[in-house]
Amino acid sequence: MQNSSDSYPKFAVVGHPNKGKSSIVSSLALDDSVQIGDTPGTTQIKRGFPLKVDGKIIYELFDTPGFQRARRVLSWLKAQEKVSADKRSEVVKRFVIEHREDKRFRDEIELLEPIIAGAGIIYVVDASKPYGAEYEVEMEILRWCGQPSMAILNLIGEEDYREQWKSALGHYFRLLRTFNPIEATFHDHMDLLESMAQLNEEWTRDIKRAIDVLEGLYNQKVEQSVDLIIKGIQRSLSHVYTKSIKGEKATKVEESSAKSSYQKQIIKYEKDTEREIEHIWNHRSIEKAKSNLLLDDIGLFSKESASIFGLSQKELIITGASAGAIGGLGIDLAFGGQTLFLASLIGGTVGGVGAMFGFDNLYEVKVLGRTIGKRELTIGPMKNINFPYIILGRSLYHASVIAKRSHAQRDRVSLGEEEFYTEQVISGDMRKKLEKVHVKLRSGEQPSDELLGEYREVVIESFLALLR
Fold first, then answer.
1. Which H or E element spans position 266?
2. How far is residue 114's CA from residue 70's CA, in Å, rounded to a whole number?
3. What's CA 361's distance to the chain center, in Å?
4. 232 and 152 both lie in a single domain
5. In this structure, what CATH number is given to the domain that contains residue 163?
């Protein structure tokens, strides 16, 4: 029985070395700090990983070493005076006490200690390997512990021997569940918790409450991610860079330097948003791949980014027409040489709006007189119709990959192995609501709370579609 002072459910994740125990702990604890490795013995001591929400622990998982001398332990247990089943847990406890300083049984002591202290048992096997009778020794020791227990079948490799395992495991464990911690989704996590709630009637209420809390937290993370994405879009579209110049007109060097600074700031907005979203989903040690096609390699200001994350030329024309944006403003609608371009002079000396290729001149470039002998070069705000959809598409894609990523994954994040097109998650009706805000931001106005509310609804709906 667990103490009332720490009555939240506890589970010891146990089994043979290298069967995915640490990965399961990492996945269920939503913690990517759990040490995971392919070498036997990566976990040498038990370690608790409590899952906290708002400072309160809702359950705790213990990562434990694998069995090393299971046969010797079972022999010792059976060599004791004959005891009834209800007394066997006391014999296991006595083994732990008497052998705590015996280095030969260090691993067994580490994995048994949380169990005799009241933790439930989650026994992990690799069901991609054939069942072997040697596992029965481990399972028999766990049965002697007398704690509520379940077995998880983890398919690490390509083969599938689950039917073999189920026939054997059913003799030792109340529940059997298949769970791949590397590929597990949030809904897989919740389904497994539902199963864990059945292990012990005393834990049911706490685990049900944990499920409710985690579902609420998930929805909160979705909304926080969307708010960050919208904030990033607002900052990027309305950003204006200002640089003092000496002459009546900006030199090519001054204009080129100003454009570079302008782009760097918008890129920084995107990177800041990405880091904050990774923090929200508790992925703090993510390493992005550099060898694959991904966001870091597809520049924000590039034709590739426009073609993957932006709208098609047809959708751009429709969007531009519906926004009344065609005519009067020089706007590149399509990239790659297919443009609808009309230039207009906008007060003072205008460096240009619109371009045939890329994003080199897709924002206002103005030279404004301030006082005698002092002039300023300003760049921005962004006038390109496609640009907010590119930012939105990239942001939604990044956020969906992060939100769906299991904390048990240790491979590098590859953002680009799947095709992504903004039109797949943003319909024409959605774009009309989005464009109302984009038009305001392009003109330097602040959208109303009502328009921003509609915008937020569209982005949340699109994000949820990607998470399914």
1. helix 252-280
2. 17
3. 35
4. no
5. 3.40.50.300
